[in-house]
Amino acid sequence: xxxxxxxxxxxxxxxxxxxxxxxxxxxxxxxxxxxxxxxxxxxxxxxxxxxxxxxxxxxxxxxxxxxxxxxxxxxxxxxxxxxxxxxxxxxxxxxxxxxxxxxxxxxxxxxxxxxxxxxxxxxxxxxxxxxxxxxxxxxxxxxxxxxxxxxxxxxxxxxxxxxxxxxxxxxxxxxxxxxxxxxxxxxxxxxxxxxxxxxxxxxxxxxxxxxxxxxxxxxxxxxxxxxxxxxxxxxxxxxxxxxxxxxxxxxxxxxxxxxxxxxxxxxxxxxxxxxxxxxxxxxxxxxxxxxxxxxxxxxxxxxxxxxxxxxxxxxxxxxxxxxxxxxxxxxxxxxxxxxxxxxxxxxxxxxxxxxxxxxxxxxxxxxxxxxxxxxxxxxxxxxxxxxxxxxxxxxxxxxxxxxxxxx
Amino acid sequence: xxxxxxxxxxxxxxxxxxxxxxxxxxxxxxxxxxxxxxxxxxxxxxxxxxxxxxxxxxxxxxxxxxxxxxxxxxxxxxxxxxxxxxxxxxxxxxxxxxxxxxxxxxxxxxxxxxxxxxxxxxxxx
Lengths: 407, 125
What we know:
The complex is a heterodimer.
Chain A: E1 8-9, H1 20-26, H2 45-64, E2 72-75, H3 78-92, E3 99-103, H4 108-119, E4 123-127, H5 137-143, E5 148-152, H6 166-175, E6 179-183, E7 202-206, E8 217-221, H7 249-282, E9 290-292, E10 303-308, H8 313-319, E11 323-324, E12 326-327, H9 340-344, H10 349-353, E13 355-359, H11 366-386, H12 388-394
Helix pairs in contact in A: 1-7, 2-7, 3-4, 7-11
Chain B: H1 5-12, E1 27-34, E2 39-47, E3 53-61, H2 64-77, H3 82-86, H4 90-97, H5 104-124
Antiparallel strand pairs in B: 1-2, 2-3
């Protein structure tokens, strides 16, 4: 492998580069000759200019999701938005009950928030998804109780890219007057969101997965019917008391601009990404013992999560030195546990260890995809030559019948 | 994962990859680990009439440090007696490869592999 080659980024679900147009906008709200003021300073022009910028951005974010700008609460990111939504709604509604429903494939920002609520005396049901990663609506219905106050289900899964049917889940929750929160960190710019139609009460967003800066996000809080949450961060009463703290004008402007671009370019971008993703998958299809993780239809265009059986993911990534991807292998995580998302699909642990996640984006080219195919294929071939499991498979030994010494 | 140059060298140029006839009397085979845990090592030794290991081969499914640990081990055991290789400690391997703490279990697996190979050989005699 040549060292001269610039590394190829195929980890867009981890984060995206900030679009140049976004960065240029942000730079207009930082230094002394720009509108650096505090948007809450209502007594001078520095504050007014910043306030106008924040209002514009609020509208841009609202426009992408067809909401009212007054329904947007700025946060530091999707993690904070998830915390505010789930804790805020759970705490506000304790008189009705203390039961929360979520799923096992949620992001840690949701799962760990639920764990904290369990420590505080709430009860949480973690739904098992179907093998394709989607929530079975009947299973969800069966989990709901009279004391259920919040359901939190993500829109697009960060590892496998599957899209949950939040329209149907919203109907189920609304009928029962249960608050429905959706973590939409991975879906902006990847699938359309219309909150006039969707019966979603709270929705979390961030900028850095949609070509905006890190460190900024938002929570959508529905006005009609009005959803009330308890603040988690107290102070100057910003954001109608729901989230105090001086607004980070440049970050907010960045989020507004990247959501504006997403709305404009989503359709054409997704066509292109789907073409690239299909090309990537076509490059692996004829290989033996290759499995796509998660539903391939109900899935965002940019994601391919695929397991190369009998090859371990971390060593595979070592061979793909100049391609940035991620793996569900235990060896890539500090906990030495394989991906909990893949395990929740009922995949055996071997397939979780053998998985690679390719996530494509705005700056991915056909050449990048072709290079990734070529490199991955030769790495898999090399590692299978090294793999005792591959030999056993070729000898026709059923690996499940072998008694292994787990360690 | 910041690996040492030695790990990367063994990973990129693994020594003694291959397999020997596991039914041959002079061959001892050790297979340790489990696919569910993310690493499986198969280590084979061929022992001469004088009790000295003439040849060693490995195949490993696992992360870079698991591959490097087994590759290094095959280099070390060649030319040694069974008693000598029994004395190889996982810490020797971890030290030589400068394994980070979360990867020390790979060297443990390698130690287990050589012990299992020796035991298999002895059981055949």
